[in-house]
Specification:
The chain is α/β, with parallel strands linked by helices. The chain has helices at residues 4-14, 24-34, 38-42, 48-60, 76-84, 96-108, 147-157, 176-188, 201-207, 236-245, 247-261, 281-287, 299-311, 343-346, 350-360, 379-393, 409-419, and strands at residues 66-70, 88-93, 115-119, 132-138, 158-167, 215-220, 224-230, 269-273, 291-296, 318-322, 335-341, 361-370, 422-425, 435-439. The protein folds into two domains: 24-230, Vaccinia Virus protein VP39 (Rossmann fold, 3-Layer(aba) Sandwich); 236-439, Rossmann fold (3-Layer(aba) Sandwich). The chain is elongated and about 85 Å long.
């Protein structure tokens, strides 16, 4: 039986009021008050983020892997990207309050685990090298104390084959009736100071040590500007497989070239111009005394060509460099011959490439570029070649910016006509065997 004292203690305990609890709603409101850009991001700028997310998917097709939004604030862009892709999106910001608020907003949006708020500095991000497939930063770079270091760190965390899109625009595909007033408001506001000199962004990237051929500027009306950075994919494995798998046909092409132009015992300079992984230069070096320069399609092709030339003992006679096919790095009248395999199938503008071949050829020189198997090739050999080449082109690790077209004879004729060079199709009437001879 309870005593009177015990009953008094129980009653007193029942009257004790628990201390006040800070609920998520209170924290949310407190953080919103501290994060000055939240109101703008969710009001005036709200239409920008879904449009920009859609533009990124349309432009780059990156829908799986990892995305990092640098200077992501409270995560609006990262959340919009996550909604329309399978990317895991990291929203990085240096403001701890913005990061905490982002965590609440992500939970409310049902994107927990898909969008990860991270506190960190754009100039020294807490991610490993080669971490992200896509890096985006909208409106953050004007506030980086060292822009070159920030761009350098964006490049560092990109995977090979990844893309970064950094700037201060509002999305090219956003309805101008919506975008232009937003851009004009920013241009007229005090926040516009850091956005008034976008023209130097390319120079800042060069200062950061990024290769010029991996950069592109993109501009929008009324102070909208972006820097696109494309980090080359490592396609060395694929180029080695291409050379090894198709080696019998490459050697046959080399023998036919030597016989057609009487190259045995002669000296001179040859340019290989196609895929550019040394598939013709190495067998030609075994059969002739020529020296070879290779205009490779990309850095991976040049790397494979140089490595295999060294392995074959031709380091002193073969040198490969990555080169834009529309603008070759060489002076006029530099080469006696230009030979290339698969060039018309991988060039974006075959007519311009053919014009470049004629420009770098010496007088009375000849160029031969092909789109398939050897000139003199049996039907069975042609079909075997096509089967191997198709399998290689469709490999998941094939160069993303690789094979573009399998030209018909009529298409090849249209390219040669557009180029304005003295060119003749010298191959027989077959589907996968198109060779063009260019004379100087």
């Amino acid at each position: 039986m309870r005593t009177t004292a015990t009953l008094l203690l129980v009653c007193a305990a029942a009257l004790v009021v628990p201390p006040p609890t800070v609920f998520a709603g209170d924290l949310r409101a407190d953080l919103i008050e501290k994060v000055h850009m939240y109101e703008t991001a969710t009001d005036r700028f709200a239409p920008v983020y879904p449009a920009l997310a859609k533009q990124l998917v349309q432009d780059y097709g990156i829908t799986t892997g990892v995305c990092v939004d640098v200077g992501g604030g409270t995560g609006q862009l990262a959340m919009e990207i996550a909604k329309i892709t399978d990317l895991t999106c990291y929203s990085l910001d240096i403001d701890s309050n913005a990061v905490r608020l982002s965590g609440i907003l992500v939970d409310e949006a049902g994107l927990t685990g898909r969008v990860v708020p991270v506190e960190g500095d754009a100039q020294n991000m807490p991610f490993k090298d080669g971490f992200a497939d896509l890096v985006v930063s909208r409106g953050s770079i004007p506030f980086w104390p060292d822009r070159a270091q920030g761009i350098r760190d964006c490049y560092r965390i990109l995977k090979p084959g990844g893309v970064a899109y950094i700037g201060g625009g509002f999305s090219r595909i956003l309805d101008p009736a919506i975008r232009n007033p937003i851009a004009q408001w920013r241009a007229d506001s005090t926040m516009s100071e850091g956005f008034k000199s976008p023209a130097d962004l390319y120079e800042v990237a060069i200062k950061a040590g990024l290769p010029p051929d991996q950069l592109r500027q993109d501009n929008e009306p009324i102070a909208g500007w972006w820097l696109e950075i494309r980090k080359p994919a490592d396609a060395t494995r694929w180029y080695r497989e291409w050379n090894a798998t198709l080696q019998p046909w490459h050697e046959q092409i080399a023998r036919q070239i030597v016989d057609r132009y009487g190259l045995a015992g002669k000296y001179g300079r040859v340019l290989e111009f196609g895929w550019g992984a040394g598939s013709l230069s190495i067998p030609l070096a075994r059969l002739t005394n020529f020296t070879f320069v290779i205009a490779a399609k990309d850095a991976s092709a040049a790397q494979v060509a140089n490595e295999q030339a060294r392995e074959a003992g031709f380091a002193g006679r073969i040198q490969a460099v990555a080169c834009d096919p529309d603008h070759l790095l060489f002076d006029e009248n530099t080469f006696d011959y230009v030979f290339g395999h698969a060039g018309p199938a991988v060039w974006a503008h075959p007519d311009k490439a053919m014009k470049e071949i004629a420009r770098v050829l010496r007088p009375r020189g000849a160029g031969v570029v092909g789109n398939g198997c050897p000139l003199d090739c049996s039907k069975d050999s042609e079909m075997a070649f096509c089967k191997h080449a198709k399998k290689l082109r469709e490999a998941p690790y094939a160069p993303k910016d690789g094979f573009k077209q399998c030209a018909t004879r009529q298409t090849m004729l249209s390219w040669t006509k557009a180029s304005g060079v003295d060119a003749t199709i010298i191959s027989p009437e077959t589907i996968h065997n198109l060779w063009v001879e260019i004379r100087k």
